[in-house]
Specification:
This protein has 163 residues and is mainly alpha-helical. It contains six helices and two strands. It has helices at 3-13, 31-68, 70-78, 83-111, 126-153, 156-162; strands at 115-117, 120-122. The chain has a two-stranded antiparallel ribbon with strand order 1-2. The longest helix has 38 residues, at 31-68.
């Protein structure tokens, strides 16, 4: 209802002002809001790719660490350790490594004050940080479980020959 009056006022102030259509603010066609939404989506996609790269790195590191212990797994099996005990031992060591990594990461985050970017305070979401930490631990344990299972299936004599 106010649009024709607003056009008349705008033309009275500056007749060269191009006022063709006036839309309510809730129409969703605000260019700044659309730009901000696009930037938020782009940042979200970048953060998702960083998270995927981190999980891939942890997966490969834990798989490599456990694969390097294949000979140890074979020796323990040859000495009569049960598969459950060997699996528990290797998983416990892997869990310790992951706990140290997550602990250091959480300590660094706790020591970091809120970020300030051009006067905008960026608060750290503790629930998101804990969810990412839990995801990293889960990925690390799953990465360790695969090579341990494969190592348990190797004959102890063959594992000893590899050394």
């Amino acid at each position: 209802d106010f649009a024709p009056e607003l056009q008349r006022i705008a033309m009275a102030v500056d007749p060269t002002l191009p006022v063709s259509t006036i839309l309510p603010l809730d129409t969703g066609s605000d260019p700044l809001a659309m730009f901000t939404f696009g930037v938020a989506i782009a940042i979200g996609l970048v953060l998702l790719s960083v998270l995927l790269l981190c999980t891939a790195g942890i997966f490969s590191l834990m798989s490599f660490n456990v694969t390097q212990r294949r000979r140890e797994i074979g020796i323990r099996s040859a000495l009569g350790a049960g598969p459950g005990r060997v699996l528990a031992n290797v998983m416990l060591r892997s869990a310790r490594q992951l706990a140290v990594g997550v602990g250091v990461g959480l300590a660094l985050i706790a020591a970091t004050p809120d970020l300030v970017l051009d006067g905008l305070v960026v608060e750290i979401d503790s629930q998101l940080i804990l969810a990412v930490a839990a995801l990293m631990i889960l990925v690390g344990l799953l990465a360790a479980a695969g090579p341990v299972r494969a190592g348990l299936e190797v004959q102890p004599t063959e594992a000893l020959k590899e050394g």
